[in-house]
Amino acid sequence: MTIASYPPTPHLWHFDNRSILPLRNQNFWKIESGVVRTATWLEDGTPIVLGLWGPGNFVGKTLDKIDPYQIECLSPVQAISLPVVDNHQLAGILSEHLQQSQELTIIRSYKRTDTMLLKLLGWLANQFGKQTTTGQLIDVRLTHQDLADLLGTTRVTITRALNSLEQQGSIERLPVHRLLLREEEIWHYEI
Hints:
By secondary structure, the chain is an alpha+beta fold. Helices cover 29% and strands 28% of the residues. The chain is globular and about 50 Å long. The two termini are 24 Å apart. This is Crp/Fnr family transcriptional regulator.
């Protein structure tokens, strides 16, 4: 499956923070800027976050054969819709999705919430962070509820864990839901 560039110059779509990308049959969304999360939910409404995706990543129902399925913008997003043509590039795109799923599964497997959260913050720093003189700036504006949904826990539990990590000096909370992960706490996991 190759991502075609038809029409010759694909239209760049702009989406606001918290808007939902429309699902297009047999099309992918290629994220040009911003961050989206793919998610599903259980019968009782419990959200299950499938992944977080940024510039250069492809998302779409064609990749995640899950129903229900949703692509939500966690920031302002620019994306282009590309049709599926043949199988040439599918292996790379699927490998990328599988790797992220495996990384998040490992992070969610830790027993202690504070450990799970610190590992998630390290993963976010690796994926979306910017190096500063004192650590990695995680400039993805995730609410406590967003972090709780990613880890399958409650917002209250995340708030307590963030307070604990801040008191230990592992993180510094900045305005607009941004975090600074201290250099000595950065953890990278590669498969």
